[in-house]
UniProtKB/TrEMBL annotation:
<protein>
    <submittedName>
        <fullName>Uncharacterized protein</fullName>
    </submittedName>
</protein>
Amino acid sequence: MKEVLIVKHAVGGRTFVHSETDVLRYDVLPDGEGWRITVSTLKSAAIEELLRWKNELNVFLFQEFEDQPTRKIWFYVKEGPVEYEDGLEQLTIRAQSRIEYVPDEFDM
């Protein structure tokens, strides 16, 4: 399975983090009632901008399989904390809920 993590500005659609094009490591783990997404990355202009718009983020995880359609997981950050820790060079996003779906199952 191949995964791609994308963090975007919900209103403008600007991409702040894209694991396929950015050099980074990430984890998505259950955290109490929600999920914790941690991204190991240098603090850049994109991360600074992400922090500026932290209340308007969309976080997606695309899971691509060889034998089945791609699954998309959309995490809702709502007002969950979004923080960058300089010492660890780590971005942490806490999401309160998520929706999993297969985009191929929706006719447009």
